Amino acid sequence: MQILTPLKKLAADANVILSAVAGKAALRVFLEEDIDIVTTQFNIDEVREYLDVIAERYKISEEILESQLKLLPLKIYPRHSYEDLIQKASKKFSGRDEDDIELLALAMKLKVPVWSNDRDFQHAGIEVFTTAKLLKILKA
Known about the structure:
Blueprint: E1 9-12, H1 14-21, H2 26-30, E2 36-40, H3 41-58, H4 62-71, E3 74-77, H5 86-92, H6 101-110, E4 114-115, E5 128-129, H7 131-138
Parallel strand pairs: 1-2, 1-4, 2-3, 4-5
Helix pairs in contact: 1-3, 1-4, 5-6
């Protein structure tokens, strides 16, 4: 699939942030200098909830993972920045993972695609990129 307009900004889900923090494939997307990556404070809180799981799985200390998280070139938006679209996003996500509503609202507010490996976004009426799809597009 050929992208006609260059990707300038993406709204990152917790799963891709966790992958990047663990040094996995998603980190290569974060290192692309031409793409601004944004997320919600809600997603950052969700990432922090799972740092212990990632630490155990990959045998990396939580402190190192927290440091990696802080080093990611990521703009974090507070809820009030996109709160006016929470209800609309919630309707689009009816019956799906409610943890994804805030990221959808932010993506709608900023008019940017979502970067997630979560299939719940596939029917949310917004452009979605998986890590594999981004790496192929970026040839990273």
